[in-house]
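To assess whether ligand presence alters the predicted conformation, the chain was also submitted together with adenosine-2'-monophosphate. Input:
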Amino acid sequence: MVSHSGLITVMERAARKAGPRLRRDFNEVQHLQVSRKGPADFVSIADKRAEDTLIEELQKARPDWGFLVEERGEIKGDPNKPRWIIDPLDGTSNFLHGIPHFCMSIAVEDPFGSQGKPEITHGYIYQPVTDESFWAEKGRGAWLQDQRLRVSARRDLADALIATGIPFLGHGNFAEWSRIFGAIAPEVAGIRRFGSAALDLAWVAAGRYDGFWESDLKPWDIAAGLLIVKEAGGFATDYRGTEVNIAKGQVLAANDGLHSKLHKLLAGSLRNA
Ligand code: 2AM
Ligand code: CA
Ligand code: CA
Ligand code: CA
C-alpha cells in the first residue's frame, strides 16, 4: 500500500472490518430481514450491521468525532472536531437483488475547512465484492489501492460513456431527468445506470466512466466520491455550474473538457423546458 495518513488507515480498517460480514450477508441475501423506508426505499439488517461496525470502529479511533450516517442519522460529537459522513451500503437495491454492485462510503468533514466553512478532507469508498478501495486526501491525490487515479482524457462526447442515476418510485424529478437524458443520450457513446452514486463517482475518478449526473442525492452518497473525483483531476458542479452543495445533492462530474460540453447540453435542456 502506498503511504497515506493515519486517517485513511483508520477508514480502511473500519471498512475492511465491516466488509466480510457484508459479503456473507450478500451471499445469503434471500434470508435477510428487509423493511421499507419509502415506496421503493428498502433497508436491510445488512445496512444496519455495516453501519454499526463502521461507527464502532471509527469511534474507537476518534472518540469525540460526530457522525452523519444514513440509517441512524446524526450522532453529535465535539462541534470543533471533524465528523464522519457515512453510507454503510450504497446500492441496497442491487444488494437485495443479488447484484454485486454496492459499496461503503466514508468521508471526513472538517468543520473549518480552508475557507472557514465545512470541507471534505478525506474520502474512502470500498467495494467488498471486488475488494477495491478508492480513496483520496485533499491535496494529495486520489488512489485505487496503491495506484494513482486520473479521470479519463476523452474529449469528445461521441467517445464518452456517461453514468446517471434515474429517479425511482417516490423519489426524484422524472420530468427534469428525462429532459436532461433527452439532451445528453443522443450525443454520447453510451449511458449507464448501475444504482450506486458513490461507485459512479469513484468510477469517474478512475476514468471508467467519462462523466456522471444525478440529482436528489444525499450527503453520504457523494461526500467521499466528490473529493475522489476532484483529486483525480476531475470537475464537479451542480446543474448551474457552481460548486456542489452536498446538502442539495445535485451533481455533474467529468473531466473539465467534457464537463463544459455536458453542462451546455444539460443547461440547455432545462432552459428550454
Ligand atoms: P442507497 O442504496 O444507499 O439507498 C442515488 O441513486 C441513491 O439512491 C443510490 O445511491 C441509493 O442509495 C439510493 N436509492 C434508494 N432506493 C433506491 C432505488 N429504489 N433505486 C435506486 N436507488 C435507490
Ligand atoms: Ca438507503
Ligand atoms: Ca446511498
Ligand atoms: Ca445506503
